[in-house]
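Why do we bother with holo predictions? Because pocket geometry can differ from the apo form. Keep that in mind while you read this record for thiamine diphosphate.
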Amino acid sequence: MKRFSAYEFPEYVDWRPDPEVQAGFAATITRDPERAALIDALDDDALVDLYRGLVAARLHDVQLKRWVKQGVITKAWLGSGEEAVTVGSCAALGPDDVVGPMIRNAAALIERGVSLVDCFAGYLGTTDSITGGRDLHIGDPDKGVIPPISHVGDLVPVMAGCALAFRMRKEPRVALTWTGDGSTATGAVHEGLRTAAALGAPLVCVVQDNQVALGTRMEAAYRGDFTAYGAAYGAMLLEMDGNHVLDCYAATKRAVDACRAGDGPVIIVARTFRMGGHATHDEREARELFDDAVYRHWGQRDPVGCYETWLVEQRGVDRARLEAVEAEVAAQIDAAAEEAKAGRGVREPDPATVTDGVYAAEAG
Amino acid sequence: MATGNTYIEAVREALLEEMKADERVFLLGEDIATYGGAFKVTAGFLDEFGAERVVDTPIAEAGIVGAAIGAALMGLRPVAEIQFLDFLSCGFDQLTNFAAKAHYRWGAAIPIVIRGPGGGGVGGGPFHSQSVEMYFVKTPGIKVVAPSTAADAKLLLKAAIRDPNPVLFIEHKALYRAPALREALPGPDAVGVIGEAAVRREGDDLAILSYGAMVHKSLEAAAALAADGIEARVVDLRTLQPLDDEAIVEAVRRCGKVLIVHEDTRTGGIAGEITARINERAFEWLDGPVTRVTAQDTPVPYNKGLEAAFFPQVEDIEAAARRLAAY
Ligand SMILES: Cc1ncc(C[n+]2csc(CCOP(=O)(O)OP(=O)(O)O)c2C)c(N)n1
Ligand SMILES: [Mg+2]
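The structure, written out:
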């Protein structure tokens, strides 16, 4: 896809496929027969949809960064480089399932069909988004998206509760959430996993290990091994390549199927890497946390570039088709961002409404 | 341009001096060592004091507060940073049940400081703007300090570190780098007194009691009132637990009219408590109803316009003061 030198990480700007990395990408697809079969069952349309999701996630972030540079917003929390975790997992869900994304999983909103205008409006605090400007953490329960709070970890027990409701009502639905490597230290994640496991809740909890939490490297905060969580919590555990959208799809599909069969919860450990800063304001500082070689390593594993290359070179998808998808998505993002921006100073919440809606008025 | 040090530099200086003066003092918190803290309060501390005394923790506020308590029980003087005080909710139990009740139960002093940025007005939304003070003011066994000036930030943080009790030290994030707050800081030997209010402006027509960032808004309002001949006494509470009852009674005696201003929400904010104390101790000096200007009883909204409507503004303080003065 087109790269944006002003907004993207240097490794992405000059990205070229590396034969060895691409061979590894292909090998991951066939490593596990069950996952291979799931991936094999995807037709070209489904495969291209995954590409569409990755491109939308990337361009969404590029747009946010453009806004930061232009001073439209002061900062943004990006999922760039980690898109496959969000997009792949969402692709394994059905329309009745629910997700609880953290802000780095903003792509989940797009995947679930929340309007792009709402996604951008969330940052602007206009009335377009579901919170009407009251919070930038948005979601849409009609699309099965529970908005997070800032307190990391807190979604895990909440999503366990969603899952519990499905189990109690014998509905074949699952709840899925993502938690960062750093956030696994919270009591909430621990209690949420213990609760979900004790109650057999159909919860998929993706531990999104991007190897860093804010300004502290993962190994300074955790000396254990996330893959031991399965045995520790009494839940099925899967691992997935967090930069590989097909592996994320297939692993999550297995987890979701297990949940629907009554074998939840499932913990999935996704190994990936945060290419940027905690947010846009500390990108330069964040680069000092790891050696350049680490950035080069993970940069080469760009989830968009690797997948695009695989689609064209291995799967034989016409490059023109992908370019058309990219152009379409880019136009949608542009239009949505423009529309959201046009809401500034126009679709602003009425200050007189500030005290409205603290309590629900009608019994449900 | 104002010279001297900012509020955040004052916090930094207090920590530096106390760490140099007392080797039992150490810091713990999220991203405070290598990264220097989310607000850079402790930038460079790791190099100066080493990883034994500047401790990066996992994202585990109960772990942070609890470990501070334990280390204090073993004779250390922990100063724990909570990245945003909103997140102290995750360590609530450790602070309110373990730390707060230890001395009452078994005579164990818990000399810990829990410090971090509180308050709003900077577009932080519902989870990076809250006033958490009253959860703790109402819990016997915890002191709560909320300085409004750079000098006080330094003096009172030093006092908090030397205090034998758990102290919640609320730094106002909107004041951290406010240029107008620059001032020359007191030297290394000066230490503040927890529990004493300060009169920031003399006046006899009414008294405005406030703390934190609202002290400055109150002073702005007082200046506007003075233009019309209304002289407001502005009292900076500085400490919310214990409250300086003498200063409050003194303000009532002198002015007869009291306006309490806080950016905390209205119900359960400190204004209610102060009003009750005035009724108990100084009712006969009152020449008008104790009045309050506070934030609205809602979460802190993200949108700028809503946020402005949520927090007290200078005009709100001024208007309430005029009504009270005319009463
Ligand atoms: C309970 C709580 N404590 C602290 C914070 C401040 N904070 C926000 S994100 C973050 C780091 C999260 O790291 P991780 O879970 O690894 O997610 P990542 O940002 O890497 O996606 C911290 C410390 C918070 N939001 N919530
Ligand atoms: Mg992380």
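The radius of gyration of chain B is 19 Å.
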